[in-house]
Amino acid sequence: xxxxxxxxxxxxxxxxxxxxxxxxxxxxxxxxxxxxxxxxxxxxxxxxxxxxxxxxxxxxxxxxxxxxxxxxxxxxxxxxxxxxxxxxxxxxxxxxxxxxxxxxxxxxxxxxxxxxxxxxxxxxxxxxxxxxxxxxxxxxxxxxxxxxxxxxxxxxxxxxxxxxxxxxxxxxxxxxxxxxxxxxxxxxxxxxxxxxxxxxxxxxxxxxxxxxxxxxxxxxxxxxxxxxxxxxxxxxxxxxxxxxxxxxxxxxxxxxxxxxxxxxxxxxxxxxxxxxxxxxxxxxxxxxxxxxxxxxxxxxxxxxxxxxxxxxxxxxxxxxxxxxxxxxxxxxxxxxxxxxxxxxxxxxxxxxxxxxxxxxxxxxxxxxxxxxxxxxxxxxxxxxxxxxxxxxxxxxxxxxxxxxxxxxxxxxxxxxxxxxxxxxxxxxxxxxxxxxxxxxxxxxxxxxxxxxxxxxxxxxxxxxxxxxxxxxxxxxxxxxxxxxxxxxxxxxxxxxxxxxxxxxxxxxxxxxxxxxxxxxxxxxxxxxxxxxxxxxxxxxxxxxxxxxxxxxxxxxxxxxxxxxxxxxxxxxxxxxxxxxxxxxxxxxxxxxxxxxxxxxxxxxxxxxxxxxxxxxxxxxxxxxxxxxxxxxxxxxxxxxxxxxxxxxxxxxxxxxxxxxxxxxxxxxxxxxxxxxxxxxxxxxxxxxxxxxxxxxxxxxxxxxxxxxxxxxxxxxxxxxxxxxxxxx
Length: 728
Known about the structure:
The chain has 728 residues and is an all-alpha fold.
């Protein structure tokens, strides 16, 4: 036997495969089954070296081809022996590895063998069998087989025929089996069949609908089983493929949701008071707990049915359908309007218990309704334009009332999708609401309270947020607000308090919504509004870099949303970049500070952050946001000014803004009453930074060294410019 050259030698593959068969695959009556660790190693080796692929290079000799083919034949033969073994544990190993083989083997071998494999697997789905784990792994393996078979158009007919044989055994499992793992596996396999071979379920359509709905209605199933059943229900109309079946199904689901909401929201909706109890008798505690159990079942059922509606709206369908948008939006509005306030008609002793229960369940219902609204926007897209005003009003109203961070994150996500699908028209009407809420959730004034009450929200919005209709020469109110709280001002920038309660995921969602708003409709914003958004984003990015929001409570909440401080830094810098790249008449007021943050991020060890900051600096350089000077020249100019006696850092920002009318006043105003680049009585034009430097040089009678482009250190940074200046 010749030695292989290295680990890439194709002659190694059949040797490895035969070695795995010998060491890890037990025969029918001897040798114990492999341990979980051994099975994991076996699967990893098969996938790493693609031992079952039979992918022969063109220059491969016939001996190697025959050797590898024979090794794969031995592998499959050993698996089929295990599959037909009467010992459940060895049969389980064979079925598991046969499912892996369906994914890893060559197309020619799969098409020539799948029918034989199915003939061995289908009998194992006997509902009367007590081998629960064998049923689970059999459903998974058959699902893998049908998933691959669905990719071959020439096998659709045979695939449909085999899938039809499985429908009734699967429905029987759903109706009779009590194991949650078996129910989930059976529902998963039914979803696979409905996805790739939907016509195989047509003959059993009514039975399938009854079985799936019964499983949803039975409160005994866990969340995973309910999700799979909701998916089955949403895919069921595909078995007929006509628009009428789709419309009837979603109408049935909506009718069931509203019917169950009538019981769940009894006495909680305006204008729908509950009737007086029969005989005027108060509900007993026992009767209340029975009603509470019924309500709890309904409040778990309703989100599942809403999830099914979401899937119907976003998943592709073979025919064009008419979506009942009015009914869907009415359902969303109905749920979001309920906040747990009880009707006066409820008896006093019942009210407290009922309110405590319903308030504990409402966040899940609201989240399900927001998911449905997101699905409506994603599914209908541009055809939703006639209903855009209704959705905007719904979002604004709920945004003003919503306090829970998780729900506010979802609202920001929906607004982003709404802006991306509907365009600039929506940005004009919902932009002010997004900005006002972002100022609150990002703690721009530093109140450290995250989401305040309605009165506090109104105060922040009116005092800290410039209106979209701000005109020439109008100064922004954020300066006055910050002057009322001088302890929160540091170098002209409002600083967030360390005890901020707005969690990281909420800040990220607000920043992403701001970025989308600026991208979709930012060019229509006023200059003064842009200046204050720049100031906000500079503040947020600075605090993110300083780690001032890294509290233990925040880390726990962020882990639930799978985000961290780096995600916050990137989100803040993305929004800042979108703001700096806006096509405006004057250079952004806080460009220098923004460039400093991007350079700081570029030097970070975090790869994602450094990569984005490098692209941001390139975008700002190429888009000409720095006027006739390069980024490096501006960095050097700012550094030089900072060493000149009497220079005020806030004036550098005014140099960059060009002193245009409508720009915000520096948060830390200069002591001199004279305007450096003009005053309110004259019309200012953009001032060239070189001229400003010359004026300042003449005033202070100090020499400023000017470097040639090739004299700048690489990479360019303010610290690097300082070093060159000192060497000179």
